[in-house]
Amino acid sequence: MTARGVASFLILAAGVAATSWAADVAPTAKPAADQSMADSTLIARGAELAAIGNCASCHTHPEGKSFAGGRPIKTPFGTLYSTNITPDNETGIGKWSAEDFLRAMHDGVAPGRRNLYPAFPYDHFTRLTDNDVEAIYAFVMTREPVRLTAPPNQLAFPMNLRSALSVWKVLFLERGAYRPDPQQDAEWNRGAYLVEGLGHCGACHTPRNAMGAEEHTRDFDGGQSEGWDAPALNSSSPAPSAWTAEQLYAYLRQGRDENHGTAVGPMKPVVDNLSQVPESDVRAIARYVAWRMNRGQLVRVAATSSDSAQTVIGDGEAIFRGACASCHEAEASGGPIRSGRTVPLSLTTSVNAPDARNAIHIVLEGIWPDAGEKGAFMPPFEGAFTEQQLAALLGYVRSRYARGPAWSDLPKQVRAIMHTGQKQ
Ligand code: HEC
Ligand code: HEC
Ligand code: HEC
Q1: Atom number, ligand 1, closest to the C-alpha of residue 73
Q2: Within 10 Å of residue 94's Cβ, how many Cβ atoms?
Q3: Could you tell me the pLDDT band of residue 31, with boundaries at 50, 70 and 90?
Q4: How far is the CA of 120 from the centre of ligand 1 (A)?
Q5: Which of 195, 245, 340, 368 sits a CA distance of 20 to 30 A from 168?
Q6: Which ligand is nearest to the CA of 74?
Q7: Is 348 in the pocket of ligand 3 (CB under 6 A)?
Q8: The domain 186-294: what is its CATH number?
Q9: What pTM was estimated for this model as a whole?
Q10: Ligand 3 pocket test: which of 342, 364, 377, 407 has the largest number of ligand atoms within 8 Å of its C-beta?
């Protein structure tokens, strides 16, 4: 469907279906305040689950209080703001019952029949067991209440109409808890439950259609997030050396794997959260992702270097020697660099990916360890290069270190990222 076709379809269908899903939903009374809330093991389990679900990452403004919302989320349809999920009675979810919360997580409906936008990944959270949702509720409801209302969403018509979401749900929301695969063992099923449900990995790693829904025929085929490319996590993985479950575990738990590199951009908060949850859960996630990656034949693009790019590569090589080689030339010279070794560029996904965006972001924004912690550091080069220089530099890096063909749209992508402020 074209965008216009989609829009008129939505307008037509919205009128018909506006009430269908939400009809049975009415706000329910809040339970007496104290009861099961005091259950500290339930709350602790809820905290771990909330970390795997990245609830705080989306529901916290960079300068705001935890879970108080207001963080802008850019989508192709406009900007949405995460809402306040602290137990404040007026501006948060303080008056919500456990049932209200369960409906929001499983059906994307808030009290008052307010349909929620799927930027809140309830299309994944619908896979959660009622028990897990209850634990998350117990955790969220015991946070510090904060009085704050998110700014109004800035969405284009017809997406600004919440009624249109009923249609979206009819078409794309597959409700229902995760059903274990009896052919597989408990660890595999735990991994699948967390990846497909709470971890909502596909929200970034699966491509979306014109109506913003994940294309389930292409699960984990690579998607995007905040102007970054979220690489394929299936047999189309662009990683030059195949990921093992062990390597995925290191990457997801510590944020870095020696054979692949460091998690950056929108993947950084994901691995920060996974460093705080039970180790067995991260092992299960790694096992399941490795299984998805290795189910098919790994098709690797044979080395080809593009002649058309040769003219700019000369400049690129000189820039690389001046600005990058001190840290990235180990694979040529063999020597260790400073205290640690950087992953050879030839092994990194960003340099080998079919899309140049992540390499551009990394060079402009650098890589930072968290305050007070040790970790990979690369300085940001924003302002250091002109568009042409950055395109020449990355053209050279691609031709020298990657197995794939030259990035054909490199200059265009460099311009877009340098000038549209599409940055982290
Ligand atoms: C990718 C970002 C993202 C993540 C991750 C996320 N949320 Fe949200 N959430 C949102 C957005 C955006 C909204 C507002 C949707 C709207 O306005 O329709 C929202 C709305 C909600 C609401 C409805 C509140 C209201 O009154 O609008 C609840 C409850 C909620 N989220 C809970 C959670 C929990 C619990 C988690 C973790 C398990 C979570 N969210 C993870 C983005 C996110
Ligand atoms: C908010 C968006 C987002 C979510 C959610 C997300 N990822 Fe990512 N992920 C990315 C981006 C962007 C990259 C590329 C950045 C980089 O190379 O560090 C990435 C990179 C990765 C990589 C490295 C791939 C490679 O070949 O280099 C793996 C593995 C990965 N993610 C696994 C996961 C798993 C498992 C989950 C769910 C538990 C998940 N991701 C959830 C955005 C996301
Ligand atoms: C001060 C040292 C330093 C300098 C200078 C430096 N880098 Fe890096 N770079 C790093 C480190 C450390 C990493 C993270 C890799 C790892 O985890 O070992 C990295 C990662 C990268 C990656 C990402 C690989 C991935 O994980 O997907 C790219 C691309 C890259 N550098 C390109 C460049 C380019 C181009 C230049 C020159 C403009 C440059 N770097 C300059 C230290 C440096």
Answers
A1: 12
A2: 15
A3: low
A4: 4
A5: 195
A6: 1
A7: yes
A8: 1.10.760
A9: 0.85
A10: 342
How many angstroms is it from 203 CA to the middle of ligand 1? 13
Asked if pLDDT for residue 339 goes beyond 80, the answer is no
CA of 191 to the centre of ligand 1 (A): 23
Residue 84 predicted with pLDDT over 70: yes
Q: Could you tell which of 123, 124, 235, 270 is best to mutate to test the pocket of ligand 2, judged by most ligand atoms within 8 Å of the CB?
A: 270
DSSP 373: -
Per-residue pLDDT tens for 376-421? 889 999 988 999 999 999 999 999 999 889 998 999 999 999 987 5
CATH 1.10.760.10 for the 310-335+345-419 domain, yes or no: yes
4 against 94, higher pLDDT = 94
Distance of CA 379 to the CA centre of its chain: 24
Task: State the Cα–Cα distance between residues 331 and 160, nearest whole angstrom.
Answer: 52
Bridge partners for 48 per DSSP: none
Predicted local confidence at residue 312, as pLDDT:
54
Give the Cα separation of 47 and 415 in Å (integer).
41
Residue 213 pLDDT > 90 = yes
- Give the phi and the psi of residue 150 in degrees, each rounded to 5: -65, 150
| Sequence ranges of the domains in the chain | 3-172, 186-294, 310-335+345-419
